[in-house]
Structures are given as C-alpha cells and as structure tokens.
C-alpha cells in the first residue's frame, strides 16, 4: 500500500480517517545517515511535518503526514538531515519513491 522502501526509513505511527480521507502518519527512524557515520551525531527531534497527497485508496483521499528527523553534529553544532539524493542512488528504494522524496523535500 505504501511506496516500496518507505518503511526502511520511516516508521508508521498511526492512520486516521476523517471526512477528508485517510491520513497516514510517518516519522523518520533514528538511524544516522550513512554518509555521516564518521561523525558523532545525536538526534535533535524533527523538522516541521510535511503533508503530501498520495494515490487514493478505495475511494478515500490519502495524505501522507511525514516528519523528517534532524541530527546535530556534536563537534560543530551543524544540523544534519538525510540527503535523499544519496539514498535514492545507493539504497533499495524504487526510482519513483526516490523522485517523490526529492520533489517533496526540495533536493
């Protein structure tokens, strides 16, 4: 039902139904992006949630409510987020899902 590869990076938190359709809530898992494995990072919560319209399911509109995680580099104080260009090139997600993430998050 969800794009292939989505649950490798996001946890399904809940699904609600309203007169506006289904809302699927997803949070990025607390797994440091592979390109930052050499740095000491700790989770600093989430970026503001993003709402994305997805394909309807059984005549219900579907909204993905996505919360992306952010990490702080302990030594520099820099805030780090996952680079979806790196993920789509080297991970087991579909090309469609990689393009969706790039378009949604502006990378």
Write the layout of secondary structure elements.
Layout: H1 6-9, E1 10-18, E2 21-28, E3 41-46, E4 50-57, E5 60-67, E6 69-73, E7 79-80, H2 84-90, H3 95-105
Parallel strand pairs: 2-5
Antiparallel strand pairs: 1-2, 3-6, 4-5, 6-7
Helix pairs in contact: 2-3
Write a compact overview of the structure shown:
With 107 residues, the protein is of the alpha+beta class. The protein is 21% helix and 43% strand.
What are the main properties of this structure?
about 110 residues; alpha+beta; 4-stranded mixed β-sheet; 3-stranded antiparallel β-sheet; elongated
Describe the structure.
- With 107 residues, this protein is α+β, with helices and mostly antiparallel strands.
- It has one domain.
- The protein contains 3 helices and 7 strands, in the order αβββββββαα.
- The chain has helices at 6-9, 84-90, 95-105, and strands at residues 10-18, 21-28, 41-46, 50-57, 60-67, 69-73, 79-80.
- It has a 4-stranded mixed sheet.
- Helix 2 (84-90) runs antiparallel to helix 3 (95-105).
- The chain is elongated, with a radius of gyration of 15 Å.
| Unreliable runs | none
Euclidean distance between termini CA atoms: 25 Å
| Radius of gyration over C-alpha positions, nearest whole angstrom | 15 Å
Count of helical stretches: 3
The average pLDDT value, as a whole number, equals: 82
Largest sheet properties: 4 strands, mixed
The number of strands is 7
- Widest sheet, order of strands: 1-2-5-4
